[in-house]
Amino acid sequence: MTNPKETYDFVPLVFERRTPDVMLARARAFTAELRTRRSVRHFSEEPVPGEVIDECIRAAGLAPSGANRQPWTFAVVTDPELKRRIRIAAEAEEKELYEKKISDEWRAALEPLGTDWEKPYLETVPALIVVFRHAYDLEEDRKKTNYYTMESVGIALGFLIAALHHAGLATLTHTPSPMGFLGDILGRGKNERAYVLLPVGYPAAGCEVPDIGKKPLDEIRLRF
């Protein structure tokens, strides 16, 4: 682990300057690719190449982070028994949420999407990636402060989702609340907090998704 008193060597930036036409074409191609990304809740049991998932996690690990602390762990779960334990625990939390905690407004917002507390895909999907946020790190049993951990892990998660889609895999961001059971099942340290549970695989044959749209540019972009 890096000593806080150490300093970095500085090296020349590797940066390719592109023409405006090339930049716009690349931006449009990337937007077009992301436009086809959808959250999937019906997965095939077909295995996915572990090397592909590893490479996508490698891409996620390139995300910027507060003070370069890189406060994340990506736990890949393919073991059927562990997936089953995660499903049982997640459904218990989700059932409590849907039956006792969720507001009428929240329930109405979810109803058109057809979601409920049952999560069979947590077992059928070939891989789960549990993203853990390091609230702090431990160095010789002493706490080492991390900075902007929520923001840092959120950026890394965005990189990961984009990389998985680009590689040809489907995902779903699942956040059962609370998520402490994930750290317990996977034996993570007390400094690691589950951030998101990400099923990863191929869509099941005949998979359907809600016909939803996204806000147009003029509704999400301001210029001053």
SSE map:
Layout lengths: L19 H16 L14 H11 L11 E6 L2 H22 L2 H7 L10 H4 L2 E8 L1 E4 L2 E4 L3 H19 L2 E2 L8 H7 L5 E10 L15 H4 L4
Antiparallel strand pairs: 1-2, 2-6, 3-4, 5-6
Helix pairs in contact: 2-6, 3-7
- CATH fold naming: NADH Oxidase
What general outline do the C-alpha atoms trace?
A: globular
Number of strands: 6
Round the mean pLDDT to the nearest integer and report it. Answer: 95
Distance between the termini: 43 Å
C-alpha Rg, in Å?
20 Å
Proportion in helices:
40-55%
Report on this structure.
The protein is an alpha+beta fold and 224 residues long. It has helices at 20-35, 50-60, 80-101, 104-110, 121-124, 149-167, 180-186, 217-220, and strands spanning 72-77, 127-134, 136-139, 142-145, 170-171, 192-201. It has a single domain, classed as NADH Oxidase, CATH 3.40.109. A hairpin with a 2-residue loop joins strand 3 and strand 4 (142-145). Helix 2 (50-60) packs antiparallel against helix 6 and helix 3 runs antiparallel to helix 7 (180-186). The protein is globular. It starts with 19 loop residues before the first helix and ends with a helix.
